[in-house]
Amino acid sequence: EIANPEAHICELSSKDSSFSCKLTVRRGRGYTAAVDTGEDMNQIGLIPVDAPFSPVLRVRYSIEATRVGKYTNYDRLIMEIWTDGTIKPQMAMVESAKIFRKHLNPFIQFDEARHGMAVVHEVQALDAAAERRRERIMGLLSEPIERLDLSTRARNCLDVADVATLGDLVFKTNEELLAIKNLGQTVLTEIDRKLSDLDLNIGMNAEEFAVPAGEENE
What we know:
It is a single chain. The strands form two sheets. A two-stranded antiparallel sheet has the order 1-2. The chain has six helices and four strands; from the N terminus they run ββββαααααα. The chain has a domain at 87-112 and 121-208: DNA polymerase, domain 1 (Orthogonal Bundle), CATH 1.10.150.20. It is α+β, with helices and mostly antiparallel strands.
């Protein structure tokens, strides 16, 4: 689905002119400059362009004093988020919070280094923790969807889409789930909350949890 059909592609010099082209569409995150796309910048007939992948167009925030009961030393955060329509502002907020949390995980897992301990030992400890998490998540992926204890409405929606295991669910994107009949934002939020309790989330990378070649038959 084209989210921005009004995008300006080119201008023709006359009404008799004709134009045709092939467009390459890719998934990504953040921003990729044309020179970093891997395309040959000198190839005739090819025009690499910068690729802004972020669905968030604009964010504005403000902080104001607020009162909670008799306490007045609280702050209220007000955020306004504009997106390109491929994701709802609420979900953009949720996804950005998840990304931020993942970036902070190394600091959360990092224990105070003992005097004289080599940094490499700390890195190895973090790698081991990450591998243990990966193994635990891989064990969860084969669990039935009933593990989430979802509402009847949510279970019925997933049954219609033949989503039987946690693996079937977490490798789907928000857009794929919202395309399921009767599955709306309320159900999506419920699913996302239940998954987060297991340290899982919608849109996980299937390649990250694929079984390495040679281990399938062990």
